[in-house]
Each structure stands twice: as structure tokens, then as C-alpha cells.
Amino acid sequence: MRINFSDFDMDESIVAPIIYGENRHSTTNRGVVISGETRQELKKFLSGFNTSVGTEQTPYYRIDAYFDEQRLWLLEINASFVDGWGTALNLARASGITVDPAPLVFPKRFVSKSRVYLPELQLFVSELAHLGLHDHNVCEWNGNGVDPIYVYGRVGSKDQPNVLPYDGLRLDNKLNLGVFSREWAGDVVKIPQHYISRFNSWEEIPREVVLKFCDKGSAECERARQSVMFNKPSGKAPFIKRCYNAETLIAQDIVRPTKQDGNNCQLIIFAIGDEPITGYVQYSRSEIINDNSTHGPLRIS
User: Fold this and answer.
1) Is the pTM of this model over 0.85?
2) What are phi and psi of 36, to 5 degrees?
3) Residues 288 and 33: beta-carbon distance below 8 Å
């Protein structure tokens, strides 16, 4: 098996009790192990993806993925709001999973644009210290400055060269994965088929798809009041069709998640450049799996 579930010997005293606002952090020792073969192909994927999108500085990614025993399905690559590092590193340490600190290159300063993410960000700084990476600190957000700063929040334009993730808003566009999917041919790492108006007419989109706005912060997304919708609408649906034709919205084949004890399972994988580093598992009964789910450890061999 290239990807399999595993029960880790988790030290509950290490697990952070709160990571978001004041909500209790729900965790389980049931985790997932990704094989070395899968890791190598994911690294190859990231190298090709970075070339395709034309990265100018080292990017930071948060990847949403479904999986079965033989394949890893990459659903989305988030490159602007890349949070969750603290959760991943904390669960890894609690579960005896070794994480190489060498690729964890971050600026000294961190900031959160929202107070509810502060516990997780503070956990991140603490976990970096446990890995021997000291002198990081959480600061107040002042928009920009001369020193590099890593931000929890939707950021990343080229006119803010010191704000990381750099160029995140452009790299976050969901068109990027769709376009790259047309040239990627992996054995283990897969991308669901994408439908983009420059390649596929509206009529070619099947009924059962996931519709995604390419920019989660766009006016179109705000008007729809959701960034993700299931199934192509019946009828004329002029607004959605207009967004598709303007390439502010794409469609993606539906991939069914692996289930564990009735829960849908999703992997969150963190990468820097072309290097997959750490992550965690999400367990939820919801169709759209968010971070208010139960978290388990992830080992990337």
C-alpha cells in the first residue's frame, strides 16, 4: 500500500487543547502514512507545478487531498492563506513522527490578520522552537514593513515583497491546478479532471461536478456567498455560466473521499517549494471538510 491508515502512540499531554478561537481541539491517534514513493512523486508534481505557474520566490503551499491505498488525489492548492503548520507539527511531535527542520525556512516574524487564528500561530512558533528553530515571534499586523513577515490571512501580492507567502494571491488561483492538470501524468499523484472555458464549453461539463470560484476573494465569489458548489445547475443559470465563460469559475470532477468509521477523510499537506514536509488528517461527516473537523497525524515517509 502506498497510503494507509495507522494508529499512532500519541502523547495526549503534548496535543494542543485549542487551535482556533476558544474551541476545543478534537483529535484522534488514527492517522495516515504516505509512502516514500508517493512523496517522491508529489515532489516531482510540485516541481512541475512551480515551473508551470512561474514562481519567483519560494512558495508555501497547503494542499487539500483525498486518497485511497494506491492514489493521492490533489483537489486544491492554497498558496495565499497557508495556515495549519502548528497543528501539523504539534500532532507529529505528539505521535513520535520525525520532521526534518532543515526545509522549515521562515522569517523571524509572524502575524495573524484575525485573532481567532492566534492560538494556532502561537502553537506554530512553539513547535518551531521544539525543532530547534528559535527566535521566531508573533507580532502585530501593520500592513507591511521592511522586514520579512509570514502572515496568517489572505495575502500575497507582488507590491508587498516582504510579505509571505509571496505572490500568494496569484498562485492561489484555482485555474493554475486546472491548467497544469492537462500536462501532468502521475502514477500515484492524480488531479481530478478540470473543465475550463478555454478548453471545454459549458455544455461539455457533466452534471456531477464541483464548481469552484478561481479567486476566493473575488466579487463573484462574494455574490455567490460560497466558494464551492456541488453539481452543474439545471436551467440557464446565467450568473454561473457567465463566470465560467470568463474563467472566474472552473469545474472539477467529483472524487469520493475514503471513509473511516463513517467519516469522510481528507489530507492537509504542507509544502515549501517542491518539498512536502508535514500535514495532518481531517475526519468529518460533512461533505465539505473544514478545519472544524477531528484531526489526526500524518507521516510522510
Assistant:
1) yes
2) -60, -35
3) no
The closest alpha carbon to 99, from 85, 81, 116, belongs to 85
Q: Average pLDDT by consecutive 10-residue portion of the chain (301 residues)?
A: 95 96 94 97 98 97 96 97 97 98 97 95 98 95 79 90 94 97 96 97 95 89 86 88 95 96 96 98 91 95 92
Q: What does the DSSP 8-state code read for residue 273?
A: T
Angle at 3 between CA 70 and CA 230, to 5 degrees: 70
d(CA 280, CA 117) in angstroms, rounded, equals 17
Q: Which residues of 234-273 are buried (b: 16+ CB within 10 A; e: fewer)?
A: eeeeeebbebbeeebbbbbeebebbeeeebbbbbbbbbbb
Strands 163-164 and 149-152: parallel
Beta-strand (E) ranges in 18-162?
Answer: 18-20, 23-24, 30-34, 60-67, 72-78, 109-112, 137-138, 149-152
**73 backbone φψ class: left, alpha, beta (φ>0; ψ -120 to 50):** beta
Running DSSP on this structure, what letter comes out for residue 258?
P
Scanning 131-270, the segments in alpha helix (DSSP H) are 168-172, 175-180, 219-224, 238-245
Range 128-134, long-range pairs (CB < 8 A, 24+ positions)? 128/89, 128/101, 128/104, 130/89, 130/93, 131/89, 131/99, 131/101, 131/104, 132/101, 133/101, 133/104, 133/106
Alpha carbons 15 and 26: distance in angstroms, whole number: 10
Q: Which residue has the cell 497525524?
A: 297
* Helix (H), strand (E) counts: the chain: 7, 19
Task: Name the nearest CA neighbour of 171 among 42, 264, 45, 78.
Answer: 78
Backbone angles phi, psi at 106, to 5 degrees: -135, 155
